[in-house]
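Dear Dr. H.,

I hope your travels went smoothly. While you were away I took the liberty of generating a structure for the chain from your last submission, since the lab meeting agenda had it listed for discussion. I wanted you to have the full record in hand beforehand rather than looking at slides cold. The sequence, exactly as received, is reproduced here:
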Amino acid sequence: MLDSLDLQEEADRLPAVAPDLPEHPDYPRILAAFNHTTGPLRAKDVCEALGHELLPKNVEGTRAKLKRLVKLGILTEADTGNFARKQ
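The corresponding predicted structure, in token form, is as follows:
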């Protein structure tokens, strides 16, 4: 699966947060997780990649962030709960 340390390093190398991204440190790291995979990810996978404990509150918080990225047009939700980078 994805390594949370690699994601932090990748997020640290990303340019300044795009103006359309919310100002939370998880957003660049979430996008880095999608840069490291070819297929869709579920909220639980992203939560794990971010290094968060797999507690319901963390998974739901991550799901909410993923849904916000869908609304911003950055991600897509092809199937319910499966998120991917917009092509």
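Two observations you may find useful: The chain has a mean pLDDT of 82. The first strand starts at residue 75 and ends at 79.

With kind regards,
E. W.
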